[in-house]
Structure prediction request, 282 residues.
Amino acid sequence: MKVICTEQSQVLASHVARALKTTVVDVKYSRFPDGEHYLQAGKTDDEMVIVGSVVDNDSLVQLMLLIDACDRATNRLVLPYMAYARQDKRFKTGEPVSSRVVARALSQGVSDVTTINIHEKEVLKSFSVPTQNLSLATDIGAYIRTLGLDNPLILAPDEGAMAFAGQVASVGGWESDHLEKTRLSGVEVRMAPRQLSAQSRSVVIVDDIISTGGTIATAAGMLYQQGAKDIYAACVHGVFTGGAYVHLMATGIRDVICSDTIERGSSRISAADQIARALRKL
Ligand code: R5P
Prediction:
């Protein structure tokens, strides 16, 4: 077994290879003059672990090319972040089910797929090969423990993320809650924990994805107004589009933490060990 990866997942793939006690295959990535992707993989093995987060259209194409380049092997796909997973249904007439399109494309040429905190588990049904979805909730909890916060409140930005927040909180036996939006007027909205108070407490807002950071920035502003002592944000997938990281820091958030499913400077949690363990099991 050897590990191979797209350009966007080089660090994570190298850590997965180390955890699996194997090596990563060198790949030359470049482009044709017209912008088309080109790649050339080094010597592959009979069993390949292909690690590639789809973070944009380029990484999707590169991942499909990489799978094809490994077509002599049994390919096990690790898809740490799957862009398009949020368009998992037709919200309006005439829209595509984008997650299904990506899942179908990435099922070709692989024997199984491992995802991490996929936005919606239903998306897994669109793959035509066996899948497993891992969760980094306890890894995030373990990281929060290293911050040494006194009795932190773990907050989900909405009810949908409450189960995830509960799993994070269980690591330290902390309290968890979710934010609730109350419309005060046509233009004014209040966000506050549903049951607990943030007054004088350290708060960690946790979510699967931070994209624009809009949800968490608004919540943080309001929680500070409600007397929160300090606020942290932690997510699995740090998309951080449109300057989201800086936007969050400018709101007064003490730290914004993510995992390496998307490789960032703030990737303090690694999915590598969980991926290696899960590949051994499946
Ligand atoms: C939504 O359902 C996700 O779980 C996240 O809450 C969302 O993607 C965050 O988006 P943003 O950072 O743009 O507010």
In short: The radius of gyration is 20 Å.
